[in-house]
## 1
Amino acid sequence: MISSTPTLRAGELSSLVDQCLSQRGYFLAASETFGTPQYLVDEARIHAQAERFLRAFSHPQQPTRTHYALKSNPSLPVVQTACRAGLCADASSGLELELALHCDFPHIVLSGPAKSDSELELALDHADRVTVHLDRKSTRLNSSHLVISYAVF
């Protein structure tokens, strides 16, 4: 039977707690300066994890693109770090597409249902970097300038 609950290796949780406690002064100073609640972003860790993921799936004979799902955390520092780390972007809304374009991702997939005309027009305006992922039922786009991909299940 496969367990759906992730397990930690021995010492993994205590190591994480020790790391947080070692930075206690930094966290307290940030809360005094900026108030609470707040999110602190460890850009070096995000960058390292992205590089680790890219290495794990890279293969010289099978080019791949790894996309950061903007809906997972659209915070500007996180998104900018993902872009600088060499990831591409997965946007599911017009706002996410605008954010990905603003951050200058090299490749963006616009996915999900119910795209407005303005979202599709924005994708078309940036067809050199944007792939629109539509289901086969969509017939609103028909342009040789736009890459359209279809999900096959």
## 2
Amino acid sequence: MLVQETPTRSMQARTPRLAQTAFSFAPLFIVHAATQLHVFDHLADGCKTAPELQIACDASERGMEALLDALVGLEWLEKKGPYYELNDDSDKFLVRNRPSYSGDIFQHFVRDVLPTFQDLEMAVRTGKPPVARNRHDDGSAFSKSFVSALFPD
């Protein structure tokens, strides 16, 4: 006897993978927003609460709490009671004045890389890249941005 799969059971089996794929862009944008708002920089001198960071980053209370909790979930921050703090990775790579700061890579991907993926379907259809990066007039700015994001001063 075959067990017929109900739509609910089928959806439950597919949902985690669908959700993971559909929201895979989110970590990039979350960390990018945090670097642009200087969240990690403000935490470099010690733990802070969401309201303290909201003021320091000139953000809304609701938005800051959501961002901070997302960063905790992504393991870029730690939360102890009402206090948020850096972990080893965020302290090393996402605080601007650290020698190993690498936060600009998020800006490069958001600004320069992701927009080209919006034309992926057309690139597949035509066989042509959405943007030619091997031309001097267009490619040099992209390359400069990419290299400086990978190897900050």
## 3
Amino acid sequence: MYRHTPQRQHRGQRHDAARMPTECRPERRAKLSPTSETAQGGRRLVIVESPAKAKTIKGYLGPGYVVEASVGHIRDLPNGAAEVPDEYTGEVRRLGVDVEHDFQPIYVVNADKKAQVRKLKQLLAESDELFLATDEDREGEAIAWHLQEVLRP
């Protein structure tokens, strides 16, 4: 990764731009995101894994972005038959996996994450774009996949 480091300045010396009259200084503008043209004036929802990351990233992004945390995994295999949807019967309810259809897993939203999923769905309905900004590891990829499956953007 390339990091720009300013040249060292001697004590008492100021950067050239600071000595320039204000009317001669070049205008400083924030760079637009690649999708800014598509969502001009719209809201963009960014979903990250943890509340700490959400707070940090919120400081970097502009006013058109809403940053929210998924607070980790939102779905998992059911803990018991009571958590399996009624449409599944027999062994599927007991195992949480459909053995007769290529071992298709039955994922359910965790009870403690239902309120967060409801909040994310509401924020998505109010947004023009969705960015899943999870970590670049297998766990982050799984979290993003489950978010996409549940939120259906």
## 4
Amino acid sequence: MEKQSEFGVGPITIIPGYLAIIFLWLFADEITILSNFALRIVISLALLIIGIAFVYFSASSLKLAQQSENLNTNGIYSISRNPMYCGHLCFIQTGLAVLSNNWYCFFSVLLSFSLFKLFIKKEEQYLNSVYAEEYVLYCKHVKQFLPLPRLRA
């Protein structure tokens, strides 16, 4: 299997979501999320800061792992197998959607998440071919996206 770029499937999954936010923010009729401007700014900034931190620490950690050619299972990668995507989708794009004050902008998050689920298989197949059993064991212990607890009935 051919080596993947350092960006993986990121551009395919993330860029359309940002473009959708811009388009919807500019052209869709507004359906208000929060009428309190200050609260909207605080929530947006909090989400954006968390998202940027996720992406920064993920990228830094991944770069070190790529240089050593080891599977990265430490730090932020011990709670999510895809923390950069998680940072973009759950925090940055969601923060921008809240900032836009338009419910339609949340469709961009759904678009990006759908693309993520569609294209991430290619990245996972590559990692499985390179790291084999180590990657399979990692997948058993670390969630693909969000480290949410499972609800049991």
